[in-house]
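queue> pop job 88
queue> type: inverse folding (structure -> sequence)
queue> payload:
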């Protein structure tokens, strides 16, 4: 009749201890090896490791071997059987009784099935799967003082846990100054698994292009009614559109522009009061020019921003100011009239 190894018998001999194997007939009930006073074994199960029951079986057997209660070389873990009362993978933390029927690793051994033992186990189901985080893009372009909602850049956020993971942000973004910045997204679930993503944010100067209202404040230009402010604003427009900035005219050119602004304050025309062309003002001031000069006029008061908007929303005037073939501008301002002589 087949015999089953059921444990060790301790025999006291002269102050020492002798351990002898204890065998039982297969027809006899297998004794319960659970020690009710023993500490409950705590095991973490990672769902990504495979079948949780198989993982639990392996961990329990390996723990018993670590305690010196069995030899792993004599045990076939795959062939051993596990029974767990009320095992529910959806319940992440639970105490259960685990019964394992060991199978021998030795072929031809009459102990095809070894002994059984029961272990009280507290198991916790964990997963090493990180949350899923996908951004709408890895790069974003904004202009100075734009509004920015970092959460709107998340295209997909998911996790295999019941609760949604927490999103934290780390950023050096400065919406008041042009530059390239970053926003780092970090998503960590309840078990510590983490996913990260970086969004590069380029902040540009306010684009001062035509057919829209431009703001000197956004471009950090003081609207003080000076020709210097108008010069800076026009060049900001050109640079925002990839056009080289104008050079300010010399004193001769500025003198000619001042004359034309004064003349236009009472005779708003590209012809001079005497009927001659505006170009003669440059000639009389002794200005040397390489390109045929153009003139732009506007008469809407002293505000740089107001008059600039009128120019930039007039296709003919904005085309002259944005002409990449022109190098120099002379600006004149008198009595609410602005003139730009471009050459």
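queue> result:
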């Amino acid at each position: 009749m087949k015999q089953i190894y059921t444990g060790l018998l301790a025999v006291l001999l002269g102050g020492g201890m002798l351990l002898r194997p204890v065998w039982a007939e297969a027809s006899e009930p297998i004794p319960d090896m659970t020690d009710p006073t023993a500490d409950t074994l705590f095991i973490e199960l990672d769902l990504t490791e495979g079948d949780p029951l198989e993982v639990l079986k392996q961990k329990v057997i390996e723990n018993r071997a670590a305690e010196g209660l069995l030899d792993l070389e004599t045990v076939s873990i795959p062939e051993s059987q596990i029974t767990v009362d009320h095992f529910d993978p959806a319940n992440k933390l639970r105490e259960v009784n685990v019964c394992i029927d060991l199978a021998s690793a030795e072929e031809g051994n009459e102990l095809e099935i070894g002994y059984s033992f029961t272990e009280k186990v507290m198991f916790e189901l964990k997963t090493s799967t990180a949350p899923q985080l996908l951004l709408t893009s890895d790069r974003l372009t904004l202009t100075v003082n734009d509004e920015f909602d970092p959460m709107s850049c998340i295209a997909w956020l998911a996790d295999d846990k019941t609760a949604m993971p927490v999103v934290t942000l780390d950023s050096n973004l400065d919406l008041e100054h042009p530059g390239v910045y970053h926003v780092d997204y970090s998503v960590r679930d309840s078990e510590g698994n983490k996913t990260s993503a970086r969004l590069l944010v380029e902040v540009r100067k306010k684009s001062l292009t035509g057919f829209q209202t431009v703001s000197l404040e956004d471009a950090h230009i003081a609207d003080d009614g000076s020709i210097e402010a108008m010069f800076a604003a026009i060049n900001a427009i050109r640079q925002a559109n990839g056009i080289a900035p104008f050079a300010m005219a010399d004193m001769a050119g500025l003198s000619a522009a001042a004359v034309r602004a004064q003349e236009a304050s009472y005779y708003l025309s590209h012809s001079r009061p005497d009927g001659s062309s505006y170009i003669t003002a440059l000639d009389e001031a002794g200005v040397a020019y390489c390109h045929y000069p153009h003139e732009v006029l506007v008469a809407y008061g002293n505000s740089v921003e107001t008059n600039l908007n009128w120019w930039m929303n007039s296709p003919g005037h904005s085309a002259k100011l944005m002409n990449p073939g022109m190098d120099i501008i002379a600006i004149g301002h008198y009595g609410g009239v602005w003139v730009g002589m471009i050459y």
